[in-house]
Design brief:
By secondary structure, the chain is mainly α. The protein has a domain of about 80 residues. Helix content is about 65%, strand content about 5%.
């Protein structure tokens, strides 16, 4: 980790050890932990709950308070699942990755045809589902090299950890500030 201070290296190795151990949990335990974290964030601490509820009310003015609460709970559940799945990337096997994140046969065929024709493509994905796993799946199954534009994190230790996870299956990363507007 060239250019990273000793204190950040220490933080990195602590983070890596903790998250790697977490990543070894089997999926049922991982999702049970996610449900527990969701309960703590949403019901106990109410992390950004007011913001989430306000945004949902503005987005869905015709929904009842019960529906808004259900949507908020679903959001927190999705968010917790997403984070733990991302950390699972540290240890997940290629086979398990492909069992948990798949592409349609039509999409695979299209990407293979474009690859055979020597054509590149630009994919634009929203932040819905596990976009980290989608990139890994693309890198494992498609002939094109996937290069993802990303925004570096402010913590050098956490940025290095995320870089390691994101490139594990061959995905390339391009810092946002290295691209043209």
């Amino acid at each position: 980790m060239p250019g990273i201070k000793a204190s950040q290296k220490f933080i990195y190795y602590c983070l890596y050890s903790l998250l790697y151990a977490l990543s070894l949990l089997p999926f049922p335990l991982l999702y049970a932990l996610s449900d527990f974290i969701c309960f703590i964030l949403f019901r106990v601490f109410g992390y950004r709950k007011k913001v989430v509820l306000t945004n949902l009310r503005k987005s869905f003015p015709d929904k009842s308070p019960a529906d808004i609460n259900r949507l908020a709970n679903n959001f927190y559940s999705y968010l917790c699942d997403l984070f733990l799945e991302i950390f699972k990337t540290l240890s997940i096997s290629k086979e398990s990755m492909l069992r948990h994140c798949q592409m349609t046969p039509e999409a695979l065929e299209l990407f293979k045809e474009l690859g055979e024709e020597g054509k590149s493509l630009i994919l634009v994905c929203g932040h819905y589902g596990n976009w980290e796993w989608a990139g890994n799946t693309f890198s494992l199954l498609c002939p094109q090299r996937l290069s993802v534009i990303y925004h570096p994190l402010s913590s050098p230790a956490f940025n290095h950890l995320m870089y390691k996870m994101r490139t594990r299956f061959g995905t390339g990363l391009i810092e946002m500030n290295a691209t043209s507007k």
